[in-house]
# Entry
Amino acid sequence: MKCKKVLSLILSLAILSYVFCFPVFAEEHSAVMYFNSSQDTADISFDFDFDMLINGDNKKYSKDLAVISSLFATTAYTASDPSTAALGGANIVLDGGKNSRSPLSFGASLGFEDNYFYDLFSNQTVAEPGVTVEVPSYDTDTNDTTAYYFAHKKVNDTEVIILSIRGTNGSFKEWSSNFEVGCDSKEYYDKTGEHPDWLRKENHKGFDVAATRVLKAFESYVKNNVDPKAKKCVLVTGHSRGAAVANIVGKELEDNKDYKPFTYTFAAPNSTTSPSAKNYKTIFNIVNSDDLVAFLPTEGQGFTKYGIIKEVSVEDLVVSDGRSLEDVIEDIAGWFDYNANFFVKSVISSFNNMCSSRSDLYKIKGYPADRIVFDLDDYGSVEQFDKELKSYNLDKYCSYTVEGSDILVDPSPAYAAQVIANLAVRGASYLFDDFSGLEGRYVPIKYAFIAAYIDGITDPHLTITYYGIVKECDIF
# Structure
């Protein structure tokens, strides 16, 4: 009897020794990314295990978590509208599965449950049966939309949760929001009214409002679908606009002791002017130096990101096998020839020269050299002119007077920023539109952006580019 007890004790100790002394190796997966309605594909691989989050150190960069985060950020674009794939989104099909083009399929294939996707822009829900989330309707700041994906998996006494946020969907509303940094000033509120979901005034207004709305939905998802007694690990991620929103969400979750957050962002625009931004240790922001989007709004205007920023250049970096990172990413994607953008610095400089702080963005100085002259006869009436001005979201950022048949518009720097937002969405045809016009000190920013646009903004910003960065580089 004593021998049996001793043997049992030895066996128990051996099992405990194995569990606690040896690492849990992540499962290796292969998959295919389907871009552009499945016309373009990329073969990818990644490692994933729930233990990476349950027992991982959220203040230490994990290459494996960065890779899986980049993939969740990619699939956040994938909804019923396949055109979003052109913006960098892709459906990811695991280990020879079927391409379903569902934003839920990737997480479900990894074992996550109660998969849920909601798009604030289209009010579209894609969810597994039985998932409950209360989403309020919003009648203010209707441009500040995004989409988000939630899922979870309970492993022993821990809930592992995914929170992934979609980047810009290509609409003018969201592009306009990207340039709506906001300012806690009388000039701003007089022009734009109240913003009840802009809770953290140090943050970029367009991103912060979206973050507030994501967090409200996330709280509802957790309350209704996640075990309240379990410990909670959360992987937060996003690309582009989604990365900026994720940056703020990650900050809020790091401040909330109910969660153990891991935040990885890709191509995040700057999101805050908070002096404590660098104090956050669970947020890792991966930036391609060739990517203009990640540098706006500019540091010269006081903006940065929460957490740790790691910047690499796809154009310049050589990876461990002696090849350029550019060549490696082209091999992964196969269907595009990477084109770095050589006008990043000139656009940043032009923005800095336009104004030196966020408060200056909304001040109308009334300099004659900056004034834009419109012909009233082209519009028939002042009311029609005002209607068209509003359609480009320019009305709140200027003042105008009528002198005879001339409409004299005095713009603020924010007016010029919204012209850039229009250009980003409407393309070259917008250049022939009266409302693309800028004068005086605003001319350089327009032409610097046009040069960057022609040179190629897309390749450095693509999700596949950021997958290549974190997959091939030991960047932290």
Observations:
- The chain is about 35% helix and 20% strand.
- The longest strand covers residues 27-35.
- Residues 1-7, 9-25, 82-86 have pLDDT under 50 and may be disordered.
- The longest helix spans residues 205-225.
